[in-house]
Amino acid sequence: MATSPKLLTAGTEEHDLTRLDEYVAVNGYIALSRARDLEPQALMEEISAATLRGRGGAGFPMGRKASLLAKDTGNPIYLVVNADESEPGAFKDRDVMRFTPHRLIEGCLITAHGIGSQSVFVYIRGEYLHEFEVMRAALEDARKADLLGGVTIVLHRGAGAYICGEETALLESLEGQRGQPRPRPPFPPVNGLYGAPTQINNVSTIALVPKIIELGAEEFAKIGVPSAPGTAVFSLSGNVAEPGNYERPLGTTLRELIYDVAGGVAGGHELKAVIPGGSSVPVLTPAEIDTPMDYDSIQAAGSFFGSAAIIVVDERCCMVQLALRAEQFYMHESCGKCTPCRVGTRWLVQLLTKIEEGHGEATDLDLLQTVCDRMLGRSLCALGDFAVYPVASYLRKYRAEFQAHIDGSGCPFEGESSIEGIFAPVDQHVHPVPEVARV
Amino acid sequence: MTPQAYAEIQKLRTRYPRSRSAVMDALRIAQVDHGGWLPPEALRETADALDETPAFCHSIASFYDMFHLEPLGKHMVEVCTNLSCALVGAQTVLDAFANELGVRPGETTADGEVTLRAIECAGGCGRAPVVVIDHTYHEPVQVGDVSGLVEGLRGD
Fold it and tell me: What residues of chain A lie within 8 A of the CB of B73, using their CB?
């Protein structure tokens, strides 16, 4: 296989890029000085020309997002980096922070110059303590080397809430509130952090910015696909032989990623299902894995690029159990603000538990679908939709397996499913825990 | 609250245009100060340090998973049981910890030494199953590693 271009992970094999001197040895911070020689507008034009699409999930072009920032409001402009990576299956931003912290810091400083911001907040999920420490040390080194140029970068630690990866919930949390999403409009570029214009981007998006400046938008755009240039770090997990993070151009097919890159299904088992973008996106069947992993192709196939977190599932797994375990997560993480999400996730958990335990009735599959339909698009943020996609898509594509649970009054795997007996966390604030359903 | 903790919170407040933004860090500091959980007095002290109300501090502490409103063991063992870990045997690892410690997930050992929790995705899916012990990631952990890890905690 030809070597594939490395942008986010460039230099990590030969160098310890947590060290400033080693990062400088691979031309680190040269893009920053080049960017600072440019007028902000010219810099943002370069980023726009590269069509850098958000690597956090939505795929919105970063340059276009910046163009929406309200001008001359009398308020400061903030840059907020979303490092609250919590999507099940995703672990790419963690590696950016712990292996290439300076690439992220350089990306922050370049972007801050481009959007005219003096104040950057990096919201790091609370569990990532080691990554926070690595970032803190790198930031201190950058400060001592006079690289910050008057820009303040605050590393803000979260405290355990999936919802805070949603941009408006993140802003609430950063302002010291419970992490509950805000109604939109107004959107963050107009009314974001502390009511000021705010640019929010994912870690992997910002960390790509130095390479765009280093290579130039034209060269960058030669990598990947025209609608989505560049690379992404694909996180492969579940039943693959060699799980891990792999940087590849956008447009690499799922088949290539699973079989050529990650060694195929582990233990010679059969591929049953692929969740291409983290647990919240619709599932794909083995017949669909020739889909290229870029935003538009994967959407045309009925799923989402998400956080490029590919979860591979082999034939030993019961799809009702998998749906139940995914839904238990969304129930636990629903912030409770919007009724369809707060109540709907509980309904779905109850229905799936009933079906898995063999008490499902003939009408339950339609009821499951109805609950999904009534949740979709009816909450302030995407969590209410994320809670629907797994259940609705497993039901659609593996309906016979759901039906078998009802027809046979129990799980056809008869205790042999690969995730049998998995235990979902219950309310962590209650102690000791009550009895909860095991799938 | 120790004077050092109070001073640290005051310093953190200055990092933000509005000092309420420091509430999570302040609660974290108070939690460490009180042996790993937030009793009512910790919420009162945090509120004083931030010029907020105890009820506000409680509303934040009850929202986020990493704040604890009940006492916990001296050590915390957290086993990820989300999809990627589940697919490669997280359940057997959680069961092994439960057997070794003699508690169910969510409970603390009778000697007050170790709390066992099941947690949602910890972001170590590529080296699953993931176990987080006192905020340090162990990845991957197999059933055979469990007794050694527990022994390490007990010897502490």
Answer: none
CB contact, 8 Å: A129 with chain B? yes
Amino acid A432: pLDDT: 41
User: Taking all residues of chain A, what is their mean pLDDT, rounded to a whole number?
Assistant: 95
Residue with tokens 């919240």: A280
User: In the CATH hierarchy, which fold is given to the domain comprising B3-61?
Assistant: Arc Repressor Mutant, subunit A (1.10.10)
Pairing of strands A244-249, A231-238: antiparallel
Residue A420 lies in a domain: no
The answer to whether A157 contacts B107, with C-beta atoms less than 8 Å apart, is: no
- Map out the domains of chain B as residue ranges: 3-61, 75-154
Contact between residue A286 and residue A271 where contact means Cβ atoms under 8 Å apart: yes
When pLDDT is cut at 50, 70 and 90, the band that residue B156 belongs to is low
- Would residue A144 count as lying in a domain? yes
Instruction: Kindly tell me if the per-residue pLDDT of A287 is higher than 60.
Output: yes
Two structure tokens written together for A427: 């309310």
* 3-state class (DSSP) for residue A157: strand
pLDDT of residue A437: 54
Q: Which of B25, B105, B122 sits opposite A127 (nearest CB)?
A: B122
Q: Which of A337, A347, A353, A357 is nearest to A388 (CA)?
A: A347
Nearest to A431 among B18, B106, B137 (CB): B106
Give domain B75-154's CATH number out of 3.40.30.10, 3.40.50.1820, 3.40.50.720, 3.40.50.300. Answer: 3.40.30.10
- Whether A230 and A292 map to the same domain: the answer is yes
Whether the pLDDT of residue A291 is over 60: the answer is yes
Instruction: Choose one of A206, A222, A238: the last residue of a domain.
Output: A222
Between chains, do B82 and A279 touch, taking CB under 8 Å as contact?
yes
Q: In Å, how far is A278's CA from the nearest CA of chain B?
A: 10
- Are A43 and A287 spatial neighbours (Cβ–Cβ below 8 Å)? no
Rounded to two decimals, the pTM is 0.96
In chain A, whose CA is at the least distance from the CA of B67? Answer: A159
